[in-house]
Amino acid sequence: MTLDTAFILTTLPAFLKAVGVTLQVGLIAIVTSLLVALVNATLLVLRTPYLWRLVKAYVELARNTPLLIQLFFVYFALPSLGLKISGFAAAIITMTFMGGAYLTEVLRAGVEAVPRAQLESGRSIGLSEGQLLRHVVLPQAGILSLPALFANFIFLLKETTVVSAVAVPEILYTTKNYIALYYKTYEMLTVLTLLCVLLFLPLSLLLRHVERRLQHAQFGV
Amino acid sequence: MSALIEFQGFNKFFGEQQVLKDVDLKVAAGEVVVILGPSGCGKSTLLRCLNGLEQAHGGHLRLAGQELLDPRTDWREIRQRVGMVFQSYHLFGHMSVIDNLLLGPLKVQKRERAEALAQAEALLARVGLLDKRDAFPRQLSGGQQQRIAIVRSLCMNPEVMLFDEVTAALDPEMVKEVLQVIQGLARDGMTLLIVTHEMAFARAVADRIVFMEAGRILEQGDPESFFTQPRTARAQQFLEKFSFVESLPKTLHKELS
Amino acid sequence: MPSSASELLLQALPQLAGGAAQTLAISLLGILFATLGGVLYGVLATLGNRALNITLQVYLELFRAIPVLVWLYLVFFGLPIFFALSIPSFWCAVLVLGLWGASEVGEVVRGALRSLPRGQREAGLSIGLAGWQLYGYVLLPQALKRMTPPTINIYTRIIKTSSLAVLIGVVEVIKAGQQIIERTYESVLIYGALFLFFFIVCYPLSAASRVLERRWAHS
Q1: Which of A76, A185, A200 sits opposite C191 (nearest CB)?
Q2: Beta strand pairing status for B66-67 and B191-195?
Q3: 3-class secondary-structure state, position B63
Q4: A102: closest CA among A71, A140, A136, A58?
Q5: 3-class secondary structure, A49
Q6: C95 with C75: CB under 8 angstroms?
Q7: In sequence order, what are the residues at sequence separation of 6 or more whose Cβ sits closer than 8 angstroms to the Cβ of residue A11?
Q8: Angstrom distance (rounded) from CA A27 to CA A96
Q9: Helix, coil or strand: residue B189
């Protein structure tokens, strides 16, 4: 089977733009999810009355339902209540909703993974609970969470392909578009596969390297 | 008399490092050979080559005349004839004691359940653990588990039994019960190859002591000669380390002011 | 003319139930193949054969680098082109979920087997057990407790990911819902119901996994 490389070259500018959209959606989702997760994790760790239960319920809801349903709900259902949202906005909102829940779990697990002995030795040298949190728990929780955080970031980046379902022009949507327009299925699928490997494989290998360096247990996704 | 086990010019490497160098060792049927030596001298490795857990790289190894360093060797068959007991016993934790004992006889040797069960129970009784028949390993002490590990190997009706530092992981008060079992096997005429640090036991049970260092056999002989008049300087140094505690000078009574 | 939400839902139920059956069928078949494939992967990965390990690693990295939805399209569009095979999208979904799931379950099984003390393998070999006997009687039974909670989590993810099958044209629960919305315009209600459906299926599994993990935690 021969590849129509000339055609592929004509599509490259569009795919480059698509990669940009993938990264844009992915990175924004990562940042917003992290912010949401930091707030949630704080509420959980401090056990703020009522709010921590809300956070727990949110996490269970977001983690036990598919991204696609959440996406369709925001994009198709909410307009009937008067809110009209663009595909891009729906994508960001939904991915933040889901990503925030996953990252909350990672941070919570990171805090719980700090060995009890650390708390005990901190208290026995006279640290207050606040100092304990700031100087002993959070730094260690941060390091323990790093591999799982990174793994989840990669996961969010890969999940951007799902938002192609609401016409966000990332790499999968662009591929489908070209296939529908020009029927060059073989060529477009090849480009898509190559893009995925080039984008995500190095990240996956980097994660493996980070894990080995930190050598801690995994949680999250 | 032809030997039951024969190592001849035996060599083994771990990567670049040679861990066994031109080892020549013959063990007759019914003989009890105890291998002594400093850590890392290759004594455990020698044992593990005998049941195929380690690969050899040169020389000959014969069991009852059969050459084992042959690509066609069926190690499954050899392992039924050469039983091995490990330092950490490694009983199968998800099975009861009796199931641990029956696994080999029933699934590997395809024997009749009634016969295998009778043997297993008889051997359990002999080591005084018949009442633990249905217990699980985690409910037993180290010494009990090790005795059962020995019985597990015996249930396969081996010709030779290998013991790799079997008391090293036990609390001191449990060492005696295990050594008594091994002594019983020696009295019954079973061929035993034992690697141990228990000097007094070695002296009592061995027909022959083999002393190794850095992958070579430095000397071998009957226990009394070895312990009272070792021929090599290295053996002398080695034995001195073990009598170290006995010859420690008493801590002088301190003046308390 | 349905006058209330619950009446509408009741009328829509048969169609939704049909779609739900498809979703569950895809999920269960995917879970089945993922489990069988995963155990095989885990056993093969612990045999110590270098060529095998490299092959399995390539397979794993392919499924990690390429998102599942892309795999769905690759199989759906690619199979006819490369292998002249035209299989219904239902089975495309099952195939992809099975292969992807197997790589994930496989890594869990491999990790669980490797976490067993090495002596178990040696003790088993020393009483003459053959390879398959060693795994079947000694290693896998002991690895089971460690494997189960993470594997249940993977099952949950398979069920959620099965929702993507709608995008390659399978008439499963989301498609059924969308058809009802086309008639009735009750998008909030129907999508809400779909939301609830997946939650009711997945949440018990997640909870069970947590309970088992706590109960079987070894120190």
Answers
A1: A76
A2: unpaired
A3: strand
A4: A58
A5: coil
A6: yes
A7: A178, A187, A188, A191
A8: 11
A9: coil
CA Rg value for chain B: 20
Name residues whose C-beta falls within 8 Å of residue C35's C-beta, 6 or more positions apart in sequence: C101, C105, C151
Angle among Cα C72, C73, C74 to the nearest 5 degrees reads: 95
* Angstrom distance (rounded) from CA A102 to CA A95: 10
Q: Does C115 touch chain A (CB under 8 A)?
A: no
Q: Which two tokens stand for residue A50?
A: 């009522």
- B137 has a chain C CB within 8 A of its CB: no
Give chain B positions within 8 Å (CB) of C120.
90, 92
Predicted confidence (pLDDT) per residue in A52-92, tens digit: 899 999 999 999 999 999 999 999 988 888 878 899 999 99
Burial class (CB in 10 A: 0-12, 13-18, 19+), B60: middle
- Assigned token pair, C196: 């609830």
Name residue B221's beta-bridge partners. B209
Average pLDDT over residues B152-175: 93
Q: How far apart are CA A157 and CA A169, in angstroms?
A: 14
Residue C180 and residue C192 in contact, taking contact as beta carbons nearer than 8 Å: no
CA C202 centroid distance within chain: 12
Amino acid at A220: G
**Chain A residues with at least one Cβ partner in C under 8 Å:** 1, 60-61, 63-70, 72-73, 76-81, 158-159, 161-162, 164-165, 172, 175-176, 179, 185-186, 189, 192-193, 196-197, 200-201, 204
ipTM of the shown complex: 0.90
Helix (H, G, I), strand (E, B) or coil at C69: helix
Asked if residues B13 and B5 have their Cβ atoms less than 8 Å apart, the reply is no
Pair of tokens at residue B186 = 């020696």
The C-alpha atoms of residue B202 and residue B194 are separated, in whole angstroms, by 8
Q: What are phi and psi of B89, to 5 degrees?
A: 45, -50
pLDDT per position as a tens digit, A137-183 = 888 888 888 889 999 999 999 999 999 999 999 999 999 999 899 88
C134 at interface of B, judged by CB pairs closer than 8 A = no
Chain C contact present for B93, CB below 8 A: yes
Interval B233-239 mean pLDDT: 88
Q: How far is CA B231 from CA B200, B226, B234, B237, C219, in A?
A: 19, 7, 9, 11, 49
Q: How far apart are CA A198 and CA B110, in angstroms?
A: 55
Q: How far apart are CA A192 and CA B226, in angstroms?
A: 75
Q: For residue B33, give the 3-state DSSP assignment.
A: strand
For B9, phi then psi, to 5°, come to: 50, 40
Report how far apart, in Å, the C-alpha atoms of B48 and of each of B83, B195, C79 are: 11, 11, 51
Q: How far apart (Å, rounded) are the C-alpha atoms in residues A161 and C20? A: 24
Q: CB atoms < 10 A from the CB of B253, how many?
A: 6
